[in-house]
Design a protein that fits this description.
Radius of gyration: 20 Å
Order of helices and strands: EEHEEEHHEEEHEEEEHEHEEEHE
Mean pLDDT: 96
Family: Belongs to the class-IV pyridoxal-phosphate-dependent aminotransferase family.
Number of helices: 7
Structural class: alpha+beta
CATH architecture of the largest domain: Alpha-Beta Barrel
Cofactor: pyridoxal 5'-phosphate
Helix content: 25-40%
Organism: Rhodococcus rhodnii LMG 5362
Bound molecules: 4'-deoxy-4'-aminopyridoxal-5'-phosphate
Strand content: 25-35%
EC number: 2.6.1.42
Protein name: Branched-chain-amino-acid aminotransferase
CATH topology of the largest domain: D-amino Acid Aminotransferase, Chain A, domain 2
Length: 327
């Protein structure tokens, strides 16, 4: 779908996947106005197809657009575009019963040619789809993380709460640093004090203190510089359903380490659309390394994972009305 100032959204079309033409001075290439979303379509046991919290993705794209001075795509257009693409690619939606799904990537970028720095007057909204296999083909395994003290992902007043392409570009060097340290993922800290935990790679973080009936969850509050994940929000609700107390607050790396070493912290996991829930097994920084729990995925982590994937795959009751059938 194209957008032109004064004319609005126009020329929606579904076409076979192919390269697109872009003017060399298209403003996205110079000033980076580019935002995106990520969501999945799941085959249900009766053969139908459902999407998970699609309106929340539509709403987040609009929030990202406002932050980047871009036009907001109306929610109905977003939902219709996703549904049309799924219908066109229906054969690519994997069968029910497995871990696979169809991943959808809606994105919006500035196409207007021009070298002056200002919000563009022309944009394109595109949507591509790709089958996504199990994130963990050999079962869920805890990841190791590197605390990024040198680089930050987002600063107060910046673009961290938007799903903005530049946030990911800025994160690549820290990811490489994490890999050099032998870690799977990078954990971001707050930009001001480099003390408080924000998020992990493309996922939000949860901490489980205590075990059994004493278990309680802590997740970093939405500081303005971390992405409000839809999985994070869903898990806050599901934890409430399960009677698990949840605190949204700041959590420091010192608290993380002390609680892990005393055994009070029993589990840590990260969550997002791609991997759903990933346990975190060990943490490394310039101050050394520590482990969480016994190196196996924890009970709370796996129970929340089963509930969420059950709802998405139609094997658990969708009591919050999160699933939408293809309209
Ligand atoms: N943080 C970042 C930086 C991300 O890219 C993502 C993935 N969209 C998330 C968190 C998790 O968000 P969601 O649960 O909506 O996929």
């Amino acid at each position: 779908i194209s957008y032109t100032d004064g004319r609005g959204w126009h020329d929606a079309v579904v076409t076979p996947y192919a390269p697109i033409e872009l003017d060399p001075s298209a403003m996205v290439l110079h000033y980076g106005q580019a935002i995106f979303e990520g969501l999945k379509a799941y085959r249900q046991p009766d053969g139908s197809i459902g999407t998970f919290r699609i309106e929340a993705n539509a709403e987040r794209l609009r929030t990202s657009a406002r932050r980047l001075a871009m036009p907001e795509l109306p929610t109905e257009l977003f939902v219709e575009s996703v549904n049309q693409l799924i219908r066109a690619d229906e054969a690519w939606v994997p069968d029910a019963g497995g871990e696979d799904a169809l991943y959808l990537r809606p994105f919006l970028f500035a196409t207007e040619p021009g070298l002056g720095v200002r919000p563009a007057a022309e944009y394109r909204y595109l949507l591509i789809a790709s089958p996504a296999g199990a994130y963990f083909p050999r079962g869920v395994k805890p990841v190791s993380v590197w605390l990024s003290e040198e680089y930050v992902r987002a600063a107060p007043g910046g673009t961290g709460a938007a799903k903005f392409a530049g946030n990911y570009a800025a994160s690549l060097l820290a990811q490489a640093q994490a890999a050099d340290q032998g870690c799977d993922q990078v954990v971001w800290l707050d930009a001001t004090e480099r003390t408080y935990v924000e998020e992990m790679g493309g996922m939000n973080l949860f901490f489980v203190f205590g075990t059994g009936p004493d278990a309680r969850l802590v997740t970093p509050s939405l500081s303005g510089s971390l992405l409000p994940g839809i999985t994070r929000d869903s898990l806050l609700t599901l934890a409430g359903d399960a009677g698990l107390p949840v605190e949204e607050r700041r959590i420091s790396t010192a608290e993380w380490r002390t609680a892990a070493e005393s055994g009070e912290l029993s589990e840590v996991f990260a969550c997002g659309t791609a991997a759903v829930i990933t346990p975190v097994g060990s943490v490394k920084s310039t101050a050394g390394e520590f482990v969480i729990g016994d190196g196996e995925p924890g009970e709370v982590t796996m129970a929340l994972r089963d509930t969420l994937t059950g709802i998405q795959r139609g094997t658990f009751a969708d009591t919050h009305g999160w699933m939408s059938p293809l309209g």
